[in-house]
Write a structure and sequence with these properties.
With 481 residues, the protein is mainly β. It has 3 domains: 260 residues, Pectate Lyase C-like; 41 residues, no CATH class; 121 residues, Jelly Rolls (Sandwich). It is built from 4 helices and 31 strands. The strands form 5 sheets. Strands 3, 4, 5, 7, 8, 10, 12, 14, 16, 18, 20, 21 and 22 form a 13-stranded mixed sheet that branches. Helix 1 links the parallel strand 3 and strand 4. It is rod-shaped, with a radius of gyration of 42 Å.
Length: 481
């Protein structure tokens, strides 16, 4: 068909209204338009001003593997009733729809029964792009059938209502190898018809890009009848019936080899998987932070962030790895110290004294410190009737070490007192894990003897501390009675 006086193009190039005209296609170009006033007829030659009235009329004029192009004008619409109403049976033909949105060409599928295919792609190396499709009959199972290799399909399917939609839009045979499908499916989240928008039968090599909104009872993409191989599925899928990702891609026939990575709206995340591993969220499980214990760290979670160090604040933290049981706890502690301009030096001072009833000063500070207390029994303590008690308090009576009975069981020679209301002879004993902010620079900490007088014994009171300001001195105050 001669479409101009220059059927072989322009050797030096040309332009129309300052737009370059490119000689992109080796074959002929046919225009299709049946809108009112377009004068479309399958008896025309398919020139821009003399368009054909149907897609099939244009396909019938094409030559196999000639690189022919069919341009379908915006607003063109066809109602398809017969099986193979559009038969892509000429190899190498490309169909492109013009327009945007609902102004694009529209094909309405209205066969005599749901199992009839109105569009059959049976020739290799063909493509259909930018066409809108919709059902004229509910429950269609194969409105578009692909039975040839190297097919490129980029279309949109729009269901009419929740009860008027397709069961499946695209069905292949085992001959549909090296397939590319880009399907935008606009459905309803309460659909009663959709089963699986795309069903592949025995395909070898397919790239599926599916953007789906609706409710597919079985899957968004399903492998049936014969196992498919080398299938890759991507896209954004909102399958209202699938909140776990189990109905994104389903290998019903089993034995297919495939991989998928999709955004799953109803399941709330991105899912990936395939024939080697089931579809699963790629977000990963929320890290489990172990509770504090004395067991040796067994994994990186123990070391990096122990649960007990979640809130490192002034007055309640351990400033070194051995105390916090985690790297994160130590970093928090040292970070807080750095912000306050204080020293991270850990010092130990002690006071030794005989004991009697009353409050006995142990330590004085010349500045605010973070501190904790440990007491060692040099010789066993006894009290009148075994009723005496010990505690360590500040001048307001706030407890640093709790009231502990001197009852012939506690405070035996070699016992340590480290925060509990009992003492122990443990060979390895950490200081009390609760650090206290002590900021009173005018009053000492007291060792309080109460209830029953102490009759014998001796203890040493140790303080481990970090000075928060200069001078960083906590001199021992040994008050002998």
């Amino acid at each position: 068909m001669t479409i101009s006086s220059y059927p072989y193009g322009f050797a030096g190039g040309t332009s129309i209204r300052n737009m370059p005209v490119l000689n992109c296609y080796s074959g002929d170009v046919y225009w299709v338009d049946n809108t009112v006033g377009a004068g479309g007829s399958d008896g025309n030659d398919g020139a821009f001003q003399r368009p054909l009235a149907s897609l099939q009329g244009a396909i019938n004029r094409c030559v196999a593997d000639h690189g022919d192009l069919i341009m379908v004008k915006a607003g063109h619409a066809e109602t398809l009733t017969a099986s193979g109403a559009i038969a892509m049976d000429v190899a190498g033909v490309r169909v492109i729809g013009m327009g945007v949105g609902r102004n694009r060409p529209v094909l309405t599928f209205t066969p005599a029964s749901t199992s009839v295919s109105n569009v059959i792609i049976s020739a290799a190396n063909t493509s259909i792009q930018n066409i809108v499709c919709e059902p004229g009959l509910s429950g269609l199972t194969q409105p578009i059938s692909i039975t040839a290799s190297n097919t490129y399909l980029d279309i949109e399917w729009e269901d009419v209502s929740a009860s008027s939609g397709a069961a499946t839009v695209i069905l292949t045979t085992a001959a549909a190898d090296h397939l590319y499908i880009c399907l935008a499916y606009s459905g309803f989240d309460n659909s009663t018809t959709c089963v699986a928008p795309i069903q592949l039968v025995g395909c070898n090599g397919a790239q599926i890009e599916l953007n789906f909104y609706g409710k597919a009872s079985t899957a968004a993409v399903e492998f049936i009848t014969t196992a498919s191989t080398d299938i890759n599925v991507t896209g954004a899928i909102y399958n209202a019936t699938d909140t776990t990702g189990a109905k994104l891609v389903v290998d019903t026939i089993t034995g297919s080899t495939w991989y998928a990575s999709v955004s799953a709206g109803a399941a709330g995340g991105t899912f990936a998987g395939g024939s080697a591993a089931a579809m699963a969220s790629t977000a990963g499980a929320t890290p489990v932070v172990p509770t504090a214990d004395s067991t040796a760290n067994a994994n990186i979670a123990d070391v990096i962030g122990n649960k007990s160090d979640a809130a490192v604040l002034p007055g309640n933290y351990s400033p070194y790895v051995g105390g916090t049981a985690s790297v994160m706890g130590a970093l928090k502690a040292l970070g807080w110290l750095a912000q306050s301009g204080s020293s991270s030096v850990i010092s130990t001072v002690f006071s030794t004294m005989p004991l009697a009833n009353g409050n006995h000063g142990c330590f004085m500070s010349q500045g605010p410190v973070m501190m904790r207390i440990l007491v060692y029994t040099d010789s066993a303590l006894t009290s009148t009737g075994g009723t005496g008690t010990l505690s360590i308090i500040d001048y307001l009576g706030n407890t640093v070490l709790p009231v502990t009975a001197v009852d012939g069981v506690n405070f035996q020679t070699g016992h340590w007192w480290a925060g509990a209301a009992t003492t122990t002879t443990s060979g390895i004993l950490a200081f009390d894990g609760s650090w206290t902010l002590w900021y009173d620079v005018t009053n000492p900490l007291y060792l309080r003897v109460a209830t029953g007088a102490l009759t014998a014994g001796r203890i040493t009171v140790y303080m481990q501390y970090i000075a928060l300001q200069q001078p960083e001195v906590v001199p021992p105050a040994a008050y002998s009675i």
